[in-house]
Amino acid sequence: MIQRNVKILLTALLAMLLSASTTAQIANVKGLYVNFINSWLGNTVEEDKILDYCQVNGFNYITLYDLNLLNWSATQKTQLAAFITKAKNVYGVQQIGASGETSNFFRNYIVPYNTGRTNAIERFNVFNFEFEFWLTASIASYYGPVYLTPNGFTSDTAGAFAFARREYARIDSMATVYGILNEIYLGWPNTGQMQQLVTYSDRILLHAYRPTDVDVYPYTQSRIYDIVSAGRPVQIMPIFSAETSFMGPWLTNNPITKPYQTFSSGYGLESANVKQHANLQGYQWFLYSLMPKTSLVNASISTSGPTTFCSGSSVILTASTGATYLWSPGGQTTRSITVNAAGSYSVTVTGAAGNSATSAPVVVTVNAAPMAPTITANGPTSFCSGSSVILVASATSNYRWSNGATTQAISVSSTGSYSVSTTNNLCTATSTPVTVVASPIPAVPTISVIGSPSLCPGATVTLTSSASNGYLWSNGATTRSIVVSAAGTYSVRAYSGPSCYRASATITTTALTGPATPVISLQGSPQLSNSQPTVTLRSTSANGYAWSSGQTTRNITVNSQGSYRVTAIAANGCRATSAPVIVSANGCTPPAVPVITVSGSTVLIPGQTVTLTSSAAGGWLWSTGATTQSIVVSTAGTYTVRAYNAGSCFSTSNPVTVLLVSARFSADLSQPSTQSEPVLYPNPVKSTAHLEYTAVTEGTARIRVFDLTGRLQLDQEFPSEPGLNRVEIKTDPLPAGSYVLLLSGEQERSVRMVVQD
Asked: Less CB within 10 Å around the terminal CB: N or C of the chain?
């Protein structure tokens, strides 16, 4: 009992792991032994005769009896797989059993075959063990010299049983491992032997070889009680024989189901305890080659659907089971045919024994379909809400529109796909659909301006539409924002559909004239000395001045070495910058102005650093006091470096500004934010970014985007609500690079934003 419980547990586990190869018990088994496999395997005509016989007589379980006659070549395995598949898929067979008399046979042939088939339907489902240990004649003539003596067992019934029990236990173990049912054929074991064999059994085939059906149950009753005495439930099936010494002659005048009906009647009188421990599952017949083959052929036709239909449709006609088929008209020889023409169809079905019958005719009627109507629209099919279009069907006898209307013309004011059908002789023809788009009237867009519409040479201004989608600018652009560098008049349309739009007011840009590039002249030598401690630098005339040293007068006097530039400022605000002038001191000429290179972004979050490196080969002095060629920066600030070539002779670089961003940001975020800090995603961004932030009160928020030189690039205001807010930011106008996004409202918070091409 312990061993069997282990088997049940293992089987349950393997059922989950190897479900494709696990076979459960089937109800109402009708089994048949089939022999001489080497004479018919691969011969489809003979195979079909066997399977036709099984189907006609209701057999759903086949036990292959002479598998030892196969050579188990790759070809035979393929033929065997095809036969098993056909039996299950086409002929309704639910289980295929492999019969053998030693565990080595199953281990060496059946298990490798099963494990080699990737499709579970091609595998055996049952291990059928046959070893007639109770027959002394068989022991003396066959079992003894072939199995018992070579394996150290005595050549008598005791030795034969011991050998059979060992082999069956091994077969049971293999069946458990591979999720296969096992069954054993038993004639006349004694009570003790029966009790032992029940331990290993899923199903027991009880020898009920009698000449008639009269006493088939009393003949097996004592062995059923032996099974019950084992105390473990097991499936049982009587096995009847068609041999001439048993029921062969009797079957010529009696149906093959009658012995089981008689057996079931006797079994039905048993107690609940007997039925619980010896559960009758069905019956088995021995042997196909001995069974009577005459059977009536029933010729009938089943249809896949109505036999009256419209042209273009069809119906499948299927004949009842037989060996061969001949359809009229047409002459097809398949079991099923597809019919799309009117006519009267019948089929002649021939059975495996050669007898045939012809079905009653099936009449197929095909009605002609009417011509499909066409739809004409009296105007555009895309428009703004509030408008409509009339759709008119071509003339026909009746109309059924997809919206339910039954008139020839309909007025449509809502979006949808509209078609019209007409019906004649139960056949319907439908027009090609017409799509109507009624778009909501969009709000009049407004244009926000980032920068001045008065353009200095080289300057640009960004124009952004208030609409969130559907843009068409007067210059042909279809992005939400455009960057303008030339004078002109600009407007934008906001589209909600193909033909529905509102236009903005115009924005005019003008081109300003910039000042002439200033030139610096010197009053004195550019070499400072004890005799000339200062030099005066003069700019050509302009409306205003901005020197690189900070002064705003036309002329400046300097007393220190360096590189000096002046920016001329016109009255209209446009600027132009001069070439640099080098002033040296104490007899030395300042080296070339060093250039600071940056190892990464100059916008940092806490914990990040950036390396600044001077282009000068030596003589470094940073604004931080460092004297190395490179410095590592982690704090915000403006950084410069001097390059010295001798003593106090130096040049100073242009400044580099490093920003520190305290808010967190994400490089790839697709889920809504649950944090109070702003979250920008995706980041890097190509065209559209989303900023999520949490607000406490209702109000107005503002987003400004600065480049790393501090220039304002984008500026927009929007309403802010308590809770989570999401703002869409169009970055199309911005060139690739790093930016700082400043969110203002309840408090100011910043995020680094990277724009990609």
From this structure: C
CATH code for the domain in which residue 425 is found: 2.60.40
In a domain, residue 400? The reply is yes
Tell me the one-letter amino acid at 81: A
pLDDT at 14: 40
Tokens encoding 623: 């604004």
What CATH number is associated with residue 668? 2.60.40.1930
Domain that holds residue 689: 661-755
How many CA atoms lie less than 13 Å away from 392 in the CB half-sphere? Answer: 7
Number of C-beta neighbours around residue 435 at 10 A: 10
Query: To the nearest whole number, what is the mean pLDDT of the chain?
Result: 87
Q: Which of 252, 255, 264 is nearest to 216 (CA)?
A: 264
What gap in Å lies between CA 226 and CA 238, rounded to an integer? Answer: 15
Find, among 98, 89, 87, 83, the residue nearest to 40 by Cα. Answer: 83
545: number of Cβ within 10 Å: 18
Establish whether the linkage from the previous residue to 719 is cis, with ω within 30° of 0: no
Residue 295 falls within a domain, yes or no? no
Exposure on the CB side of residue 342, measured as CA atoms within 13 A: 8
330 closest CA partner among 307, 298, 361, 284: 361
Task: Write down the pTM of the prediction.
Answer: 0.43
**Which of 236, 263, 290 lies at the terminal end of a domain, its last residue?**
290
Residues 257 and 344 placed together within one structural domain of the fold: no
Residues 457 and 491 in one domain: yes
DSSP state of 591: -
Give yes or no: residues 505 and 526 share one domain: no
Q: Which of 153, 101, 160, 167 is nearest to 136 (CA)?
A: 160
Residues 652 and 667 in one domain: no
Residue whose C-alpha is closest to residue 131's, from 169, 95, 96: 169
Which of 585, 31, 499 has its CA nearest to residue 260? 31
Q: Same domain for 149 and 231?
A: yes
CA distance 673 to 64: 67
Give bridge partners of residue 625 from the DSSP assignment.
none
Task: List pLDDT tens digits, range 420-459.
Answer: 999 988 888 999 999 999 989 888 988 887 777 888 888 8
SS3 content of the chain, % helix, strand, coil (to 5): 20, 35, 45
Q: DSSP label at 371?
A: P
Q: Which residues contact 662 (CB under 8 A, 6 or more apart)?
A: 605, 606, 749, 750
Backbone angles phi, psi at 755, to 5 degrees: -105, 130
Q: Is the pLDDT of residue 669 over 70?
A: no
Task: Please state, for a pLDDT cut of 90, what percent of the chain lies above it.
Answer: 56
d(CA 391, CA 386): 16
Q: How many helices (H) and strands (E) does the chain have?
A: 13, 60
Dihedral sign for Cα atoms in the order 421, 422, 426, 432: negative
Count of other CB atoms within 10 angstroms of residue 380: 12
Measured CA to CA, the distance from residue 115 to residue 183 in angstroms comes to: 20
- Based on the fold, state whether residues 432 and 403 are members of the same structural domain: yes
Instruction: Please give the structure tokens belonging to residue 555.
Output: 């002329």
Domain's final residue, options 290, 309, 328 = 290
Which two three-digit tokens encode residue 591?
């080296």
* Claim to verify: residue 557 and residue 602 sit in the same structural domain: no
Looking at the structure, tell me whether residues 538 and 674 fall in a common domain: no
Count of domains forming the chain: 7
Is residue 244 pLDDT above 50, yes or no? yes
Residue 99 lies in a domain: yes
Q: Is residue 714 part of a domain?
A: yes
**Has residue 184 got a pLDDT over 90?**
yes
> What is the Cα–Cα distance from 448 to 464, expressed in whole angstroms?
5
Mean pLDDT for 508-520 is: 92
